[in-house]
Specification:
This protein is mainly β. Helix content is about 0%, strand content about 45%.
């Protein structure tokens, strides 16, 4: 698990903005201390020297605990499925 950064803003639509120290991968999972799963990293934006990450929060997360909180991230495994070619009708 790697340190992502500190929270900056929590929107009403359920997005958490974090000022990052290192560059996370989109689709990775975000965690709060105690390994509480927060949600998924959906976007990385801003200047290259100090980027920001946007996290889509899961339902039922208490946003009051996330004020100035340290957020961690873990790279998710690639999804395995049937793939595009398996869905062809022929």
């Amino acid at each position: 698990m790697k340190f992502l950064g500190k929270t900056m803003h929590i929107s009403k639509s359920g997005l958490l903005t974090v000022k990052t120290d290192n560059l996370p991968k989109i689709g990775s999972q975000a965690f709060h201390k105690g390994r509480t799963h927060l949600g998924t990293i959906i976007d990385v934006f801003g200047p290259v020297a100090s980027p920001y990450a946007s996290i889509k929060l899961r339902r039922g997360i208490d946003t009051n605990q996330l004020r100035d909180a340290e957020i961690w991230w873990e790279e998710s495994r690639p999804r395995r499925g049937r793939g595009y070619h398996a869905k062809r009708p022929y």
